[in-house]
Design a protein that fits this description.
Blueprint: E1 3-7, H1 12-23, E2 27-32, H2 35-49, E3 54-57, H3 63-76, E4 82-85, E5 91-92, H4 100-128, E6 131-135, H5 148-167, E7 174-179, E8 192-193, H6 196-208, H7 213-225, E9 230-232, H8 235-246, H9 248-270
Parallel strand pairs: 1-2, 1-4, 2-3, 4-6, 5-8, 6-7, 7-9
Helix pairs in contact: 1-2, 1-7, 3-4, 4-5, 8-9
Length: 271
């Protein structure tokens, strides 16, 4: 039986991933800070699919909890075939307005939480020649204004993943990085923002998306096993990313125009 660890798996995209992997017959470790929800997910998956699904409390900023999780999986499963560093948070605000503690909070979870997952579980993945999947965002490739902390954290996850893609190849470990754009999830439930309008805009864009967490989970499963580095799920944003790569002057004009337009709307609402 294949074995997968998924952080932030009690809700949102992590939950969709857990359900999809369990449906394929994988044993799933639900690692999350939400104890009640995590226990329920693990029990539901175990009852439905009969595989070894279990919950482990994990705050991705806590090294001791990572070590406890590593020990539990090494003892219970004697290894792991895939690790999905999915846990993340959102924040927004102009650079001179965002609180530095919120910037640090975003980096600690979105970047260092992923770094720790890679650090503690790469030894097990080397033994199994498994898959390492880091969840970034299209914000790691396309950098909208007013999102400096989130953009920086996700861009760093992309850079980390690209580094490990070649670094771990000699050890038989396949590395993928997921960069989705907006889709319906609970990311804004804990979002820290200096402007309520930023959260409202994010919710509006998520609700308009015709791509679901289930769609993304299926693509992650198939693309990662195929050894694909960059997993891009949204066609329009992928086109913008290609414009950035091949026509950067056009891309930055677009970004400046979007920033001016958004700033004008915010000024109008505050007037």
């Amino acid at each position: 039986m294949k074995r997968v660890l998924i952080t932030g798996a009690a809700s949102g995209l992590g939950l969709a991933l857990a359900k999809y992997y369990a449906k394929q017959g994988w044993a799933v470790c639900i690692a999350d800070i939400q104890d009640e929800a995590g226990e329920k997910v693990a029990e539901d998956l175990k009852q439905k699919h009969g595989s070894d699904c279990f919950f482990q409390h994990l705050n991705v900023t806590d090294d001791n909890q990572w070590l406890a999780l590593q020990n539990e999986i090494a003892t219970r499963w004697q290894g792991v075939d895939a690790v999905i560093n999915n846990a993340g948070v959102a924040s927004s605000g102009d650079i001179d307005e965002v609180e530095l503690k919120d910037f640090q909070w975003t980096m600690d979870i979105n970047l260092m939480g992923v770094v720790k997952g890679c650090h503690y579980f790469t030894p097990l993945l080397k033994k199994s020649h498994g898959n390492l999947i880091n969840v970034a965002s299209m914000a790691g490739l396309l950098h909208m204004s007013g999102m400096s902390a989130y953009n920086a954290s996700k861009a760093a996850v992309v850079a980390l993943s690209e580094t490990l893609y070649s670094e771990l190849d000699p050890h038989g470990v396949k590395v993928s990085v997921l960069c989705p754009a907006f889709f319906k999830t609970n990311l804004t439930d804990t979002m820290r923002s200096t402007n309520p309008s930023g959260t409202a805009v994010a919710n509006k864009l998520m609700n308009k998306s015709n791509i679901t967490a289930d769609d993304i989970a299926e693509k992650v499963f198939k693309d990662s096993l195929a050894g694909k580095l960059m997993i891009l799920t949204h066609k329009n944003e992928k086109i913008v990313w290609l414009i950035k790569r091949y026509l950067p002057s056009v891309y930055f004009r677009m970004m400046k125009y979007t920033a001016k337009k958004f700033n004008a709307k915010m000024t109008e609402k505050q007037a």
